[in-house]
Predict the 3D structure of the following.
Amino acid sequence: MKDIKYNPIEEKTLNDKLVNLYGAKIPGLYAAVKPLFDDPDAIKPALPLVIELNDDESYENADLRVMVFGRETNNWNDTDERSQYPYGTYNFNLSTSDDVLHEIRGKHIEGEPEIFGLGDIYHAYCYEENGVRKSIFTRRQRELMQRLSQRLGNRKVEAVWNNVSKIGCGGKAFGNSCGKPTAQIHDIERQFFNVVANEVQILKPDVVIFLTGRDADREIKEIFDLSDEDFKSVKEGVFLDRINLPGVKYAARTIHPSRESNENLNKHFDALIEDIISCVQ
């Protein structure tokens, strides 16, 4: 499978550029994770998180483009739609460049109802409301974006969700349903699906927000080649550091919102929004 030669599509949109980024990586990644599925004792990886913009034009024309990072996916699989694959995840039967393309873009792009690709999973979670249960993290992330948009008045804000770890652990059937990826899965991602910095280059967000707490600092530094000196505290009594991220107007890391009280969440979100506005207006 790793020997599949992916033929890039014509890049007319940002989504096309993302597809080509992922397409070049998918054959090697799938070949690398296959031994984990062959090993009955191994923790199995979830599917890789791929970004798909709902509307390229709206994102490109926004007054403020924001990329919000979480830490890792939990149970990032759709076992109903991909039940024919091991644990509802990886399609190890890819053999051509077109197979790779369909695996990424899926049915709602290709118009093939029997295909449910990686982009379909992202699209369903981010842009569809019916039947898709949102995590606490996602709901609070949306609240943050709504508050930021309200503060900016007539300026149009477009946000895209991402994760620092692109491949999480799989569901409960895999023996581990959440938390950081295993060292083995992390190493595979770094070698075969190290795409986060490229995603930032392609999408060119004005603002990058890491809602990750301290638990992803190592990964952030690793991905963007940063050091401790690139993190600068903003305000005493608030866990908020600006990050020196080249090519981005504003980047910061603050609390992971899932298990925070509303009072603590509001304190940190208020500080974050004020700091963003001080830099982008």
Remarks:
- The CA atoms of residues 147 and 270 lie 9 Å apart.
- Strands lie at 64-70, 157-163, 207-211, 231-233, 240-243, 250-254.
- The mean pLDDT is 91.
- The first strand starts at residue 64 and ends at 70.
